[in-house]
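Our preliminary data section would be incomplete without showing what the modeling component actually yields. Below, a chain of 380 amino acids is followed by its predicted structure, encoded as tokens that our downstream tools consume directly.
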Amino acid sequence: MTVTRAFRLLVALTLALGLSACSYFSWLPWVGKKLPPLPELSRNDASLAWSASVGKSAGYLFVPSVNDKLVYAASYDGTIAALAEDGGHSVARIDARARISGGVGAADNFVAVASVKGEILAFDAAGRSLWQATVGGEVLAPPTVAAASVIIRTADGRIVSLNRADGKRRWVFQRAAPTLTLRTNAGVVVNRGTLYAGYPGGKMVAIEVESGKPVWEASLSQPRGATELERIADVSGLPVLDNSRVCAAVYQGRTGCLETLSGNVLWSREIASSDSVAVDEKNLYVTESGGAIYALDKTTGSTVWKQDKLAQQEPGAPMILKGRVVVGDSQGLVHVLSTENGDLIGRVATDGSRIVTLLSSADRAIAQTERGGVFAIALK
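Predicted structure:
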């Protein structure tokens, strides 16, 4: 693990314990360390298509949403911007009239966000308030809109299902959590009436969306170590579905895939990560805690290639776009890698702050930064 990434995770733990991260770790010698030069590119397949600003994050991790040719992005001050997928111009601006703590969930003329007070605020696409509900806990993950439900993942690990029509509570799923966990903005993944979520202790769960009943619980990785800090083994990134498998990575643990029907582990590798993974037709891609990016055969887990030239940049979760791997880093750069061999084939600078989220929108990558910038990256 790179020292800066380790510092960031320690800060997350410190905040979870209610301590002052800045003062507690201000003595660490690597903070502000100058990074080595980036590798030169023989070609650049990436370019900036458009950019916009929605407001600062105030330390929260905001995730945008793409729906009906619009990109919805939120900021801490309560602004929800609807930007045209093509061109990035402002189509609508919603004032939530509350401080927002997470990203946006959007589907079919429906937009939902969470406030810092644990309130879920629902609007139509024109910004008219539909309902407001309280889930009784901090919400860092964006709401997941699934058919008749709005699924909320709270910071303490509860999963709450609300009725999409009126916000009334349908069910709550909760499991015991260890004393120390990572602070994460990962929500849930829904497919064919089942939702999948990662938990501390290397656990994955599958739950019926309609009833909230558990389908299975499985261990992708076991906690190890003598201390509570060493035994943190959280699935802190969003799981990824790939046909009959669900794949994820575990911080201080393993990366692997499980069967969606049974939860049986298909394979796992000793590659630890606090981020989400990505899959394409052949491979699974993961950024390990040390900063190296791996391509693994998604059937067997064997290594296809490894790219470690970006390790000092702290690359985040990979995504797949137009047959290439795209990752953002802590310096506000978006990098493009070949899926064939991991070669660096593109780079775009944003606003210099950490890329919080990357997602695909049509044929572009949408990045949101800590400073509230929204950037659309095009690939040749």
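The two ends are 33 Å apart (CA to CA). The CA atoms of residues 364 and 378 lie 5 Å apart. Preliminary results of this kind motivate Aim 1 of the renewal.
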